[in-house]
Amino acid sequence: xxxxxxxxxxxxxxxxxxxxxxxxxxxxxxxxxxxxxxxxxxxxxxxxxxxxxxxxxxxxxxxxxxxxxxxxxxxxxxxxxxxxxxxxxxxxxxxxxxxxxxxxxxxxxxxxxxxxxxxxxxxxxxxxxxxxxxxxxxxxxxxxxxxxxxxxxxxxxxxxxxxxxxxxxxxxxxxxxxxxxxxxxxxxxxxxxxxxxxxxxxxxxxxxxxxxxxxxxxxxxxxxxxxxxxxxxxxxxxxxxxxxxxxxxxxxxxxxxxxxxxxxxxxxxxxxxxxxxxxxxxxxxxxxxxxxxxxxxxxxxxxxxxxxxxxxxxxxxxxxxxxxxxxxxxxxxxxxxxxxxxxxxxxxxxxxxxxxxxxxxxxxx
Length: 365
Prior knowledge:
Blueprint: H1 45-55, H2 70-83, H3 87-91, E1 100-104, H4 110-117, E2 121-126, H5 129-142, E3 146-150, E4 163-169, H6 178-188, E5 189-200, H7 205-218, H8 225-235, H9 239-251, H10 253-257, H11 259-265, H12 280-286, E6 291-298, H13 314-324, E7 327-333, E8 361-362
Parallel strand pairs: 1-2, 1-4, 2-3, 4-5
Antiparallel strand pairs: 3-8, 5-7, 6-7
């Protein structure tokens, strides 16, 4: 199986708002002009993002099954679609038969398998080898065809106009230059091709109330074992994870309480180096090249309302999700006025650029 190298990471875009910390546990800097504890230079940020997700592939913390087994994938899917019941209908897998589908950030391949079973010509690209390997192994177990590449969303290794659909769920808010990633989505789409992208939503209950207020206040409880036990009972979070939060607070309280770091540490784990949030207006600007842009708000977590959240009926959760949900879905279409620009590779192409037809493929047995 051919392995595609990841290109050298570009520096953080000047337009990015992220000011993340390093979570590697390095010593505090001191003296005149010292940076905050664990400051990550922008040029190194994507490497930290890659390292974090390499060690923590999406959703793997939600199963105790042996990694790479059939039981492992099935338990992940069961959890994923229980937590995200509207995800399957939002994507519309049944309508992808015969389409060339690219997924940016494949995780453990839950949606990947559904695209393939629906008859799509599926391609995965992910920043980490861990996700690429796990998704490839899933396809081998299921005897499904697909192709799997390690690569950077900000510099996709494909010619122009390669795909009919580009899908990405909860991934592009973790890359430093999300705007550049969206430009790449547009480039690799064929004329009239569609994009379905999910980003974290700025005007959500989670960001405006849970992160801005509750998580900052509860940080004071994490200073003692008694307080950590109380937080664990209220929010259902493991003590081990809360102890990691407590260690980061002790290390540099001011840096921990910075809103960007509150966002980073309380979305995908205490050592997550980067998350970003977007309003519907900001999303519209990101997708300005596209036409027929439509946004939808989804996903409500009952744990945001401790004590009563899990007592709410489904219809009330749906109402809350539609207004205050955490996931901003963007559906957009590439202009039909552009000529198809898919190219045949030439000697001038770099080693990471591959033709739509020539990427690594796993065929059904």
